[in-house]
Every structure is written in C-alpha cells, then in structure tokens.
Amino acid sequence: MGTDVNPKLKEMLKELHELAHQIQEERNRGEPSLLNLQKVHDKIQQEGKVSPYYKSRLKGMYSTAIADAQAEAQLLQQAIDKIAEIKSYRNKTVTEPKVPVMRRGVLMSMVHKDAANLPLWKASTRYEKPPPLCGCLQADSSYIVPKGKYVAALVKGSEGEDNWILAEVVSFNSTTGKYDVDDIDSEEGRERHILSKKRVIALPLYKADPILQKECLYPVMTPSWRCTLRLHASTKELSTLYPKILRTTTRFCLRTQAIRMDILHLLK
C-alpha cells in the first residue's frame, strides 16, 4: 500500500482486511458442522428411515449450523457496509477535475459500473421488507438526493418537449424546493437545469437480493437509459440478463415520472 494513501482511507482498508480474515475464520469454524450434517444424512439414507435418535441429533446440529451461518452472514454484511463506506469516502475526496465532455461509450460504461457496484441489501429476517431506494422502490417524499449523486431528471427540450436525462445533483434549495442538476451527457458540456422535486427521481442505493426478493424491480442499464423492469427469470439466468437486454428491441413509455420498459422475447 502506497505511502500517499489518505490516513482515514488507509484505516478503513485495514478494517476491511480484518473483516475478510474474520469471515474466513468464521467459515472455517462452521465447516465441520456442515460436514457432520452430511455424514448423518448419508447414514439416514443408508438406513432408509429417520430414527428418534437421528431426529434429535439433526435438530441440534441444524441449530448449530444456522447459528454459524448467521454469524458469517453478519460479518459479510459488515464487510459490504465497509466497502460502501470506502467508496463513498473516495468519491467525496476526489480532487481531480471532472472532464466536462465525455464520449457516450465511456459515459455509459462508467454509469453501468456504478450501478453494478451498488451494495446488496440483505434482510436480517426472511420477512423484512426492502427499504426505499432498494432496487426500484421509490424514495420517501421527504428524501433529498445528496450532492454528487446521479438522478433521472425530466427536463424541457429545445422545442418544449419533455425529455429524460441522466443528471448529477449539484445542490438542493430547501426554500424553493428545487434541485440544481447537471446533464452529464450533454454534447455542449455539462448543461445546468433547475428542477422541482417532482421532476427528479432518485436512483437506487441498494441492489435487491434476486433470490429472496424475486418480485422486486431491478435496476437495468440500457444503451441510453438506466431503467427498471420486473424480472421473470430463474436465478441462474440473472447473470446473462444485461447483455441480452442490450441486444433486444425496446420500447419506452413515459407516464408521469414513471419509466416503463417492455422487452420483447427477452430470453429467446
């Protein structure tokens, strides 16, 4: 690690490194429980029945295995939170000047990477509901998008038509209730817009779990939009969705701040 690393950032990276070691130690500690469970199941399969002895033994072994898994999951969540904290801190402390004009391909790649790196929200219980801005869940009406965050903004075009853009929040005026945002994809450089809250949509802060929240809406990157759709696919197909979406014909329908996307023959 270089000597020019910010001391606070260096300390956070050290904490993340320690968490990684704790996770591996917890995993190693819980592995014998899983191996013993497998051995008991093999014996039960050989005998063809579950005796009262094995039933009682399995109950205790499963309780131990669940406790081990919960301890590991808690450490993993701490590591995810620490990574998000590090990314947020680095974004706030960047001193390099921003490039006013960026090629479309580079911009889309940057935004796609930003969306892919969103932290995964994990429920503490099976029945806990995802928070606002997880996947496509909307923010509370009182939520103010922080400076530097990307938003979907509805602006007036040169001919008075409404257009959706990807913008970066510059500031929010609590007196007027309006945002100052910069169009990051403007051909003339960063174009400033002053918009009311109802014309600004906050983008997700968390990714939803594709296994536990199958009915959630998920953020999707397309060549010209960062939008959402409801997924109807098996878990094993999720990793291949984005490339197929990019190659699929899409239709957009804008209705009162909502962006809906129809994807034809998505998995064909």
Automatic annotation (TrEMBL):
It comes from the Eukaryota. This is CCDC101. Residues 141-268 form the SGF29 C-terminal domain. Gene3D superfamilies: 2.30.30.140. GO terms for cellular component: SAGA complex. Pfam families: SGF29_Tudor. PANTHER family: SAGA-ASSOCIATED FACTOR 29 (PTHR21539).
